[in-house]
Write a structure and sequence with these properties.
This protein has one domain. The protein is built from 13 helices and no strands. Helix content is 77%, strand content 0%. Residues 1-10 and 299-307 have low confidence and may be disordered.
């Protein structure tokens, strides 16, 4: 049987340390994104920051993606790609950027970590996986943690609750996108999926182009370079290293590693922004992560459904 251009060719297994190194790069860069977004909040509003990051990310990914051949998705695959681009790269970025105008980077990173529970719920609904007592318990614990985080903020409580809601929206669209992405990466190279979805997200954010031009003109050069950093490192490089690690590790093992992101984000926020989450937010974050662990414990024992 001949291979099509869009079918990944088999490669020799890399050294055992290389996927772990790729995971480490991904986690550090994704954690730094929460800090960079918070830092840029004074110079860029949510929409223009999203557009700038996605344009840079798309351009950075284009050369690498096209070096592996021209992607030729089917019509049905394009539907999923457009949905992922609009949701994960468009809505996710705008919601997270706006949310971090209201809550600190560490708290935002903790809230995003409820997404594995949401993924388990979506799998139960759309992949015919049954609800279990562990899943219900995990969901309950996770959202109790979210409630505690929402009540732990500064005296400007309404502002914090809006920020929590926006970051939770980002977690929801991220979870939906991962469910949509699963069959795509089995049929198309992961870098093509990432590049096309990132480009779709950039197109969806084009209404913010005027704001981006104006804000880039007014922003200091250091902030413009931070925007470029977001596009090249946490977007283009981190998504590529994550896709590489996913080829050589189980999804469950890789998913557990993302629990480190809030810890890294909190440390980076302290070092670079002199900012940490409110004390009660740590309690909420711990509850949320315990809930995620309980729900994922059940998911890891179930066989993966065919794609």
């Amino acid at each position: 049987m001949t291979q099509t251009r869009d079918t990944p060719t088999p490669t020799a297994a890399p050294p055992s340390w290389l996927p772990l190194a790729a995971v480490g790069v991904t986690l550090v860069l994704w954690a730094s994104a929460f800090v960079a977004i918070r830092h840029l909040g004074g110079d860029f509003s949510a929409g223009p920051l999203s557009l700038g990051r996605l344009v840079v990310g798309s351009l950075a990914l284009a050369g690498f993606a096209l070096s592996r051949g021209v992607p030729r998705p089917t019509g049905r695959q394009w539907v999923s790609l457009v949905a992922i681009g609009v949701l994960w790269f468009g809505v996710y970025n705008v919601a997270l950027n706006e949310g971090e105008q209201r809550i600190d980077a560490g708290t935002a990173a903790m809230l995003i970590q409820v997404s594995p529970v949401l993924i388990a719920v979506l799998a139960a609904i759309f992949l015919s996986e049954r609800f279990t007592p562990q899943l219900v318990a995990g969901l309950t614990l996770a959202f109790c943690g979210v409630a505690v985080i929402g009540l732990s903020g500064s005296p400007d409580g309404d502002r914090d609750l809006v920020g929590v809601a926006l970051v939770l929206l980002a977690a929801v669209v991220y979870s939906v996108s991962l469910v949509l992405q699963k069959p795509l990466v089995a049929q198309l190279p992961a870098v093509h999926v990432t590049w096309l979805a990132c480009t779709v997200g950039a197109v969806a954010c084009l209404p913010y182009a005027g704001g981006l031009v104006s804000e880039v003109a007014d922003a200091p050069a250091s902030s413009v370079w931070w925007l470029v950093y977001l596009g090249v490192f946490p977007t283009a490089i981190a998504f590529t290293t994550y896709a590489f690690a996913l080829q050589h590790m189980t999804a469950s093992s890789l998913g557990v590693t993302t629990y480190i992101v809030p810890v890294l984000a909190i440390v980076m926020s302290l070092v670079f922004l002199d900012e940490v989450p409110p004390a009660l937010a740590y309690v909420g974050g711990a509850l949320a992560l315990v809930g995620v662990a309980v729900a994922r414990r059940t998911a890891r024992t179930r066989p993966t459904p065919p794609t």
